[in-house]
Specification:
14 helices, 2 domains, alpha/beta, 7-stranded mixed sheet, Aldehyde Dehydrogenase, Chain A, domain 1, binds 2-aminohexanedioic acid, 5-stranded parallel sheet, 23 strands
Length: about 500
């Protein structure tokens, strides 16, 4: 199949059902009026089988009951489930990746990378299942000991976005499960088959390891299903990935019922390119981060802040690289840029290009829709570069598409200021060979983002680090490092073995 040959529904539909069946989904049971379209050709992939908001109640009640049992299972035994899940993901990597390509349009290599990210988090969570450490501390009172114990929170609600339709759920779920929580997942409406396939593999791992029923559940439905999860008092933690607009709605609602939320929202990620940068390396880092995944990662690079001395050369070389990017059928070999998720995403991109032009920008590469004849209902676009006179309104706005803005700087402090002068704070990077610049960039006076890289792009983080960002990105941290703490509650224990009852702070309350 060539890149410009967009497969028809006679190919895509059966492939989707075959892959979902191989992962253990009972496709015959999927019914209902709700349908979803493949970004690859715009054609309907089949019934979704939506649940109603009222079904969220049942799911949360079941998850709550399962939690009471699951929390008694030793953490390393919970880890064994996650280990098995990782093995099943490895076995079904190609099928799950195919579903990711079909439902959200990722190229095969990135879709496989997404599944690999799931396998990696299973490994991480397995190790973590023996490392849920608490601290001990010294007491100011004789014959007393202070310690912290970590306990599972309860039911975790996961709301995930189309662009990482299964990996982000798995970051949350693998960690939540070893922590002793149970999970109710509301996946993206765009990716119900991926979600059911991933959930079916986890169900199998849970059953094989003798876990209680309803430790993991998936509720496929519309925004009202997500809202029911957000508002449910039985959901201890809502971990939500999506737009800042969505987070602005979710955060206060969860806080209002004193639930916890973990938000991973928009980014407006920049790379600074310093005069000493290795331009070959910068070029490769920028092209992957800005045009990869058709610009639809939350970590996608959206701004380049180039030193005036290298800006022209960099712009020229970037434009040359962009022209060569193979755009088309994401499942064809050699394709690097697949489709946008739907027509609305295309409209938003086209409007952003128009606004950026009105704000003084110039398109130096891309900007056009392609393959409209071969796929009239799908939206393939040329990744686009625009030079801008400065960080105008549109530059400070996240547009979820392959649209990269270039601005220039004269001194490094100005570059850092530009890096930080956006409402979002997810990811950032600096290309330099100057060690002082690199150190400053990762210091407290440097980038204000949650992810701060040197000599690599903004996207493609490994699961071992904590993932998330500041400001309008929402402040949450998922995945590696000590992000597990968000899925547990901490108890401070004071144990008195003295036989006396001395009071802290020297208080005398003798009776
Ligand atoms: C996202 O786009 O929501 O760092 C997650 C990355 C991936 C995760 C992206 N590991 O680009």
């Amino acid at each position: 199949m060539s890149r410009s040959q967009i497969p028809g529904s006679d190919v895509l539909g059966p492939r989707a059902l075959e892959a979902a069946t191989a992962c253990g989904v009972d496709v015959a049971a999927l019914a209902g009026d709700a349908r979803h379209d493949s970004p690859v050709n715009g054609a309907t992939l089949g019934p979704i089988g939506w649940v109603a908001p009222a079904d969220v109640d049942t799911a949360v009640e079941r998850a709550r009951a399962a939690f009471l049992e699951w929390r008694r299972v030793p953490a390393p035994a919970r880890g064994a489930v996650v280990k098995r899940f990782g093995e099943l993901l490895t076995e079904h990597k190609a099928d799950l990746a195919a579903l990711v390509s079909l439902e959200v349009g990722k190229i095969t290599s990135e879709a496989a990378g997404e599944v690999q990210e799931m396998i990696d988090i299973c490994d991480f969570a397995l190790g973590l299942s023996r490392q849920l450490y608490g601290r001990t501390s010294v007491s100011e009172r004789p014959g007393h000991r202070l310690m912290e114990t970590w306990h599972p929170l309860g039911v975790v609600g996961v709301i995930s976005a189309f662009n990482f339709p299964v990996a982000v759920w798995s970051w949350n779920t693998a960690i939540a499960l070893v922590c002793g929580d149970t999970v109710v997942w509301k996946p993206s409406e765009q990716a119900p088959l991926c979600a059911r396939a991933a959930a079916a593999l986890l169900d199998r791992a849970l059953a094989e390891q003798g876990a209680p029923a309803y430790v993991s559940q998936v509720v496929v439905g519309g925004p009202d299903v997500g809202e029911a999860l957000v508002d449910h008092p039985g959901v201890a933690l809502v971990s939500a990935t999506g737009s800042t607009r969505m987070g602005r709605a979710v955060g206060p609602r969860v806080a209002n019922r004193f639930g916890r939320s973990l938000l991973e929202l928009g980014g407006n990620n920049a790379a600074i390119v310093a005069p000493s940068a290795d331009l070959d390396l910068a070029l490769r880092g920028i092209v992957f981060a800005a045009a990869g995944t058709a610009g639809q990662r939350c970590t996608t690079m959206r701004r380049v802040i180039a030193h005036r001395s290298v800006a022209d050369e960099l712009t020229k070389r970037l434009a040359e690289a962009y022209v060569r990017l193979p755009i088309g059928n994401p499942m064809a070999e050699g394709t690097l840029v697949g489709p946008l998720v739907h027509g609305k995403a295309y409209d938003v991109m086209a409007a952003a290009i128009e606004q950026a032009s009105a704000e003084g920008g110039t398109v130096v590469a891309g900007g056009e829709r392609v393959l409209a004849d071969a796929a009239p209902d799908a939206y393939y676009v040329q990744p686009t570069i625009m030079t801008m006179p400065g960080q105008t309104d549109i530059v400070r706005t996240e547009t979820f598409a392959p649209l990269l803005y270039l601005v220039t700087y004269d001194d490094f402090d100005e570059a850092i200021a530009l890096n930080n002068d956006v409402p979002q704070g997810l990811s950032s990077s600096l290309f330099t060979r100057d060690q002082a610049e690199a150190e400053l960039y990762v210091s407290a006076e440097g980038s204000d983002c949650g992810i701060v890289n040197v000599n690599i792009g903004t996207s493609g983080a490994e699961i071992g680090g904590a993932f998330g960002g500041e400001k309008e990105t929402g402040g949450g941290r998922e995945s590696g490092s000590d992000a597990w703490r968000s899925y547990m509650r901490r108890a401070t224990n004071t144990i008195n073995y003295s036989g006396e009852l001395p009071l802290a702070q020297g208080v005398d309350f003798s009776v």
